[in-house]
Amino acid sequence: MLKFNQISKNFGGLQVLSDVNFSVPEGGIFGLIGPNGAGKTTVFNLATGLLRASSGSIEFNGQDLGDIPPHRITELGIARTFQNIRIFKEMSLLENVVVGMHDHLDYGFTGLLFNLPSFRKIEMVARERALELLSWVKLDHKAAMLADSLSYGEQRRLEFARALATKPKLLLLDEPVAGMNPAEKSELMVEILNIKQRGFSVFLIEHDMRFVMGLCDRVAVLNFGRIIAEGPPDEIRNNPEVIEAYLGKEEDE
Amino acid sequence: MLEQQLINALSLGSVYALFALGFTLIFGVLGVINLAHGAIFMLGSYSALLLVEKLALPLWLALLVAMLVAGTIGLVVDYLILRPLRARNVSHLIPMIATIGVAIMLTNLAQGLFGAENKRFPVGTIPEQSFNWGHLHLTELQIGIVGISVVLMVILLIVMRRTQLGRALRAIAESPRAAYLLGINVEGLFYLTSFAAAALGGAAGVLVGLSFNAISPFMGQPMLHKGIAVIILGGMGDIRGAMIGGLFLGFAEVLTVAYISSDFRDAVAFGLLFLILLVKPSGMFGKVLERKA
Amino acid sequence: MLEWWEGFWATYSAVVYGIGVNAMLALSIYVTLSCGLLSLANAAFMGIGAYAAAMISMQSGLPFPLALTAGAILPALVALIIGIPTLRLSGVYLAMATLGFGEVVRVIVLNMEVTGGPMGLNGIPLKTEFWHIALLLALTLYILGRIRRSKIGRAFEAIKADEVAARLMGVNVPAYKLFAFVLGAAIAGVAGGLNAHYTFTIGPNNYAFENAVDILTMAVFGGVSNLIGPTIGGTILTLLPEMLRYLKEFRLAINGLILIIVVLYLPNGIWDPRRIHAFWQRRKARKGH
């Protein structure tokens, strides 16, 4: 579904990614792990069009993402959440999620100007869907509250619902459980599995090993900008290079 | 003829540079566009005028005292208005809007106190001497202006590059939080920078006042606009940029007036501003556009 | 009774008109602020609209509505042209660029013979009537209100809150910013056209930096959380100088002081729904005890 072909990225003199090749299959949960600084968020930034690769190409469902601007990549079906949560703080939860539906609200200027029935209907449907998505992450009871008033874990869940609102085919989750307590993590794990059942594909970055191994169908490992392994969790768990990459880090610290 | 124009340009450019330096210092270290800098420039000019008129101070002393007065005003503005805003986590635009308010107040108050007409220095204040060097005509005033500007700029450069203080200021420019964690007295240095930048602005005011022998409450406005053009041209927060940008603008203006038309003098600055914003918004010595916390 | 009214109107009609015009101007800058953009060019756009409408009225026999339409379209076109490159710039740079643009307009207009040079235009036909202003203000409020309640309004809010996140939610950020900028310019232009046709003369110095600051002050003072704020801000700051006539000299200083006070103590302006709501909540709580 999402294919990275020989992707390299450098910033000035710093080589962040070298010859990265991997493929995120459709309909599953794909994980990207690796020590801090390995370049994982850069991978997401490249996939969503916030950055351009220095060389190589990225394909989504066969289409080269090349120079496509971020908002069009979202239209194509890639949605994403952020490591440092980027919700719209001064808007309500419901409004946050409805923004995600921006592209799918098909009314024209006349519709909104004259409050035509078509406009009203689309808005109403949008709000209902937003409420539904909030219920998936168990935040529907807070729909009218300001996003700023949520706890950290709740904000993460809001971001998740908002990303779902864009009707993505592929959902990119950047450290979705960072800062959550074990109970919240289990809940989110269940929610992501539900998402997979509903037909979304998931591509996530995480540090929490148990989370990744328990959830993902396939895992790729990034170290110093290179993919050092890719395969099912069990293989990765026992891969000597991977163990070295992580243990090596621990020894230095 | 061209050489003569170049002399004029040098004189004009160095004052522009001096003004822009204060402006860019505040942006670099405090992260604020201080649109009251023009008003402070104007008050520096009036201060020198009053000191010479009422207290019959010699010009060099009036300049120094005017710089102190301007510096103090800058410090007060920072303490009363910018400091409370620092505590809150607001967007960059908010302090700027506040400084617009300050500029307007100061200008209007000056108008109320001193009247709207142009004032001149008392006869005999301004050095009249001039020299002829080949076919070049240099006035003592021009030499003085360039000289003083250069001295002030050199002092600033030395402080920034060669002293502990300068290093601390550059650290703050990079990241105030990191500087704070390194034990630097960030707040104190904010005050110092506000003072110094305003003093430089005041100095520029005195020099321009002498140069054109016309002091009015509204002289800060056009200067401010040119200052904006200069710092964007040179790169906001960059000292070399302010100096080179100022000189560049001086040359561009003088040459435009000489060879095209004097009507377009003020438009030159904006023309350059637009050009740079379209081509390379970060300016000649462009640094990072967004500052880290 | 009628005599009193006619006397009142003769003296104060300009003030009443001024309220309407200033409310529209405050709304014009509100549009851009609601998107996170600070544009100091709206006085210039007002000027372009004023000159365009006035010149049409003076030099051709075309009816008033047509002149006003030109007063809306011409600034909008200019905004479109300069908006495309400059809206790429972020916050502070954009403010500087729009400030510079405003000054360029003033300097150029000052120098053009066709626009009357420094003396400006004299003898503009007095065509504006109360209902023109009331109608156009109501129309502006209606349009902006509908926009606010739609995906466009939400997109603006999202862009203001977090541009990058908005982009990734599928919002075409550059297009929406441009829309806000152009719309603000059109509104300011119409206000300018209306204003020109009751002030009889206009000149380049009516549309200078101080005027742009006036407009900003009205919006910031009133509050930019919703449409009521700028309208109130425009109204109060039009009436205030009239009521404080004896302080006329220091009118500008008071403007400046207002800006400072609002920024420091009333960051969301005087019409801040949230603060008002919280105030009432506290009163209710106290009454309950």
Structural summary, described in words:
The complex is a heterotrimer of chains A (253), B (293) and C (289). With 253 residues, chain A is of the alpha/beta class. Chain A has 2 domains: 1-77 and 168-253, Rossmann fold (3-Layer(aba) Sandwich); 89-165, no CATH class. In chain A, 41% of the residues lie in helices and 23% in strands. In chain A, strand 4 and strand 5 (63-64) form a beta hairpin. The two termini of chain A are 37 Å apart. Chain B has 293 residues and is an all-alpha fold. Chain B is built from 11 helices and 2 strands; from the N terminus they run ααααββααααααα. By secondary structure, chain C is an all-alpha fold. Chain C has one domain: ABC transporter involved in vitamin B12 uptake, BtuC (Orthogonal Bundle). In chain C, 75% of the residues lie in helices and 1% in strands. Chain C has 12 helices and 2 strands, in the order ααααβααααβαααα. In chain C, strands 1-2 form a two-stranded antiparallel ribbon. The longest helix of chain C has 32 residues, at 2-33. The mean pLDDT of chain C is 87. Classes of the chains: A alpha/beta (253), B mainly alpha (293), C mainly alpha (289). Chain A binds chain C through residues 48, 50, 69-71, 74-75, 79-80, 82, 86-91, 95, 98-100, 102-103, 105, 107, 112-113, 115, 119, 123, 162, 165-166, and chain C through 143, 146-147, 149-152, 154-155, 157-158, 161-162, 164-173.
Beta-strand percent range of chain C:
under 5%
- Name the chain pair whose interface involves the most residues: B-C, 43 and 40 residues
Give the fraction of residues assigned to helices of chain B.
over 70%
User: End-to-end distance of chain B, in Å?
Assistant: 51 Å
How many domains is the backbone of chain C divided into? 1
Structural class call of chain B reads mainly alpha
Q: What is the top-level CATH class of chain C?
A: Mainly Alpha
CATH topology of chain B: ABC transporter involved in vitamin B12 uptake, BtuC
Main beta sheet of chain C: strand number and arrangement? Answer: 2 strands, antiparallel
